[in-house]
Predict the 3D structure of the following.
Amino acid sequence: MIELLDVHKTFNQGKPNEYVALRGITLAIASCQATVLKGPSGSGKTTLLSILGGMARPSAGRIILSGREITSLPERFLTDIRRRTFGFIFQQFNLIRGISVLENVMLPAYPCGESHSLLRGRALALLELFGLAGRAATRVEWLSGGEMQRVAIARALINDPAVIVADEPTAHLDTKLSGEFLEFMARLKGEGKTIIMASHDPLVCEAGVVERVVEMRDGRVVAGGGAP
Amino acid sequence: MTLRRSTVFISFTALGLAALFVIAADAGLRGRGAAQALAQKRWLVKSLALTDLALFTDARYTRHPAMADLHSPFQDYPISLEHFPSGSLMPPPPHVRTHGRR
Amino acid sequence: MGGVEKQRCIIDFTLSSLLRRKGKNGALLVVYTLVVFLLASVMLFTQAIRKEAAAVLADAPELVVQRIVAGRHDLIPLDYMGKIGAIRGVRAVSGRLWGYYYDPLFGANYTLVVPEEQAGGLGEIAVGQGVARSSMASEGNIMPFHTHDGRLVSLTVARVLPASTELVSSDLILLTAEDFRMLFGVPAGVATDLVVAVANPAEVPTIAAKIARLLPDTRPIARSEILRTYDAAFSWRSGILLAILAGALLAFLIFAWDKATGLSAEERREIGILKAVGWETGDVLAMKFWEGSVISLSAFLAGVVLAYLHVFVAAAPLFEPVLKGWSVLYPRFRLTPSLDFAQLAVLFFLVVVPYAVATIVPAWRAATVDPDAVMRG
Ligand SMILES: Nc1ncnc2c1ncn2[C@@H]1O[C@H](COP(=O)(O)OP(=O)(O)OP(=O)(O)O)[C@@H](O)[C@H]1O
Ligand SMILES: [Mg+2]
């Protein structure tokens, strides 16, 4: 359960190019559900995702994660919570080029200090799950778009997070791959994960897995807000 | 399972450090082993009243830099531009450079 | 043990990421190792030879008195010995007979020395290893010499000086005083220079000053000056080697600096990704630290070990051409190895630390950005 209380975000505060991206967002996102943030370009979806995922701090307001206020935690704790709670899937996949698929997947777990062989076993199991077992040693830039996306999902899952956060996940995918992606999300939701996506792709907003669509405009929630 | 890269690096570093210790031990051992040779050299220096190392035999001020003379500026003034390579390794001895300034 | 495992994982990643540019980083490593190797070789060599010179020449004459005539070193009359011997504090005075002989056959310069205690008989000589090598003479052989008045005399090699003394004896030919005077036409009443033994070493400067006052045409040279000569000759800063190396080192520093400090857009993006997937600033900096250390530490260890092998096992073959110069006769000597840890530490701080720092510092700013930057590609 993630709660946002009157969250504001102002970029470049106090400077001439000051920009208010979020203007008082109050939202509660239930666990084990799939929620989509929808809205026109510039409405603040990405900003909201990064704030609720602990990547950026709000200018005002509070974020409560499973009853714990995380807004004012120091970086180390925040990073630790973020690492264990959220798995991010980025629009451009953001894989690290030149290194192997396996290492890309293991990357988010390196700072945890877990035993290397255990970690490797988990990563290989995940790759197996996504049909990439044969490509573990391949460099990521040699993968096809669909494979890259599956690597990105596997990487998001390596720390076994409770919440999957995906920003415009289907923007670079064709219809078939988008459908595949939504199937993966359905499977993860079935395993009890919370899914939060930002998208204005109707394919995503109208997908069967999605329980709730929150509409945004100009940094405000205009529909589907409040309690779930 | 392939070897971890960090294992390779750590082994290499450990090997390098071990080699450093071996070297240090070797230096100590050979230093002790050279004591006799050193004694022979010292004895020769003492008995022949030698003043210099026989490193450079090309000119008299490189063969016996400690005995170099002060007064031959055109022939072998120690600061003159050098045409022997070893001369560039042998700066004029301090007692020549500071002569007259003490 | 989590911390160790974490650092190992970070090293894994660092190495994978360095291996992406195998050629470039490999070249960097090789050049880096070479620089350390050359610096360390010079350091080890000069340090060892200075130590050796100090140890070997510790028993050199306390005071040598030369006579100067018209600005040149000249033969000194033996009756100066009486005047010097009368100075208080002087224990003994003796004349040294020595000089140079150019052997036109082999193009080599020899140093002819008359030992104080007569060793061989008339017509017999003892030769250093270098002389034996260059003139292919061995015990029992005859060596021809041109005398000052144009005659050719033959002296018999009675003995070859031990190889262990080559550093001081390589070009020596020991002969009797009679043969020396006959060869060079040095009259009986003079010597090459005088050697003065002093009762109390602390009085050497006073006695030297007294000699200079008493015999104004002489120049006394103290043992401390002899030792200082060698210390200066091989002192760490002196020598063309380091001058040349300094240039190479500077070029390398510029190259390494550029390599280490220039954070490419790609690297910046990667740091952003690492932060976004859950790396802390400290983890990113640790990664950069290892990136610098892997290269510089490896280069340091390899360079130092290679330098030791070069200088003390292979007897510094790379320096030989420079040291030899035009000498036809060059001593073959193996320096007594010495490893000065303080000097190694200096080298370490000169070559390893700056590179590691130069890799971390530019990453600092990139590492402290908010991880969300990566969400807007
Ligand atoms: N670092 C920043 N500095 C200044 N302005 C920013 C910054 N990041 C975002 N903005 C602005 O905040 C607004 C909201 O951006 P955001 O990326 O959240 O929109 P979005 O809803 O995700 O849009 P899109 O659908 O195009 O991805 C935009 O107008 C953007 O220009
Ligand atoms: Mg966006």
Summary: The pocket of adenosine-5'-triphosphate (ligand 1) is lined by residues A 11-12, 19, 21, 39, 41-47; C 376 (CB under 6 Å). Chain B has two domains: 5-48, 60-97. Residues 60-97 of chain B form one domain.
